[in-house]
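pls design
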């Protein structure tokens, strides 16, 4: 029993030691990689180091970042419009109720208060319909900007990090290749060559990923915005033209669902 206990203890110690060695090795590799990348970054910043440049791809990346900033502004303004319009519709709703109440309590002005109450109720109904269209527009732009574009930008960030690593190990290999050629130096050059190849493959793979994602993003952006801008235009035009039928038809055309009339749950805006 004593021998079994000792064996178990030794096995546990070996396992612990193995885990510790793995952690130390991982930390060593991370520190070395961080050092090389920091050195490369500083060299590039002060114009002493060379960097791999894909002019066409970098132009596309910068265009995406600029497009995202502009679409974020569209999203912010559309959200502000939604908030302001929601408050106006709520005011029209309260005004219609007040007119209806006064119509019952003011016989001498019953008709005047009555048709004003009906007008406000109609405006309120059309306003709720327009809000549904604008909310659909906002939701779609939000998804495009904060999910689709952001996903592509995350891949771009990985690509840019891989580019920095690739150049760091490329510079390291070039520097070693200019030095002595004894046995120790040749071993270091071989190791550097292997690391260079690993990071080159990683860089090229991520560059391909970014190129593909940018292509699909552009196609998706055009498709989404074509639909959303048409919806926004048609709904706004129909509302301010007082064309209730066209407004409702626009929502049906784009499959925009409104909550059932008289539902007790909060409106779509209050749930945002």
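designed seq:
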């Amino acid at each position: 029993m004593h021998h079994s206990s000792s064996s178990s203890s030794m096995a546990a110690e070996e396992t612990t030691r193995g885990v510790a060695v793995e952690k130390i090795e991982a930390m060593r590799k991370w520190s070395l990689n961080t050092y090389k990348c920091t050195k490369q970054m500083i060299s590039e910043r002060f114009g002493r180091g060379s960097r791999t440049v894909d002019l066409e791809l970098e132009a596309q990346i910068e265009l995406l970042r600029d497009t995202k900033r502009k679409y974020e502004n569209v999203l912010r303004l559309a959200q502000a419009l939604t908030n302001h319009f929601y408050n106006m519709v709520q005011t029209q709703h309260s005004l219609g109720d007040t007119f209806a109440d006064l119509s019952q309590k003011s016989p001498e002005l019953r008709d005047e208060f009555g048709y004003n109450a009906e007008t406000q109720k109609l405006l309120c109904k059309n306003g709720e319909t327009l809000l549904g269209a604008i909310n659909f527009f906002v939701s779609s732009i939000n998804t495009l900007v904060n999910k689709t574009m952001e996903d592509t930008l995350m891949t771009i960030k990985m690509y840019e990090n891989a580019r920095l690593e690739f150049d760091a190990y490329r510079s390291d290999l070039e520097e070693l290749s200019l030095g002595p050629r004894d046995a120790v130096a040749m071993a270091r050059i071989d190791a550097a060559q292997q690391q260079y190849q690993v990071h080159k493959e990683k860089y090229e793979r991520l560059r391909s990923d970014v190129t593909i994602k940018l292509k699909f993003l552009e196609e998706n952006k055009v498709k989404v915005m074509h639909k959303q801008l048409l919806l926004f235009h048609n709904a706004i035009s129909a509302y301010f033209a007082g064309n209730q039928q066209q407004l409702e038809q626009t929502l049906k055309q784009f499959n925009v669902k409104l909550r059932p009339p008289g539902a007790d749950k909060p409106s779509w805006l209050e749930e945002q």
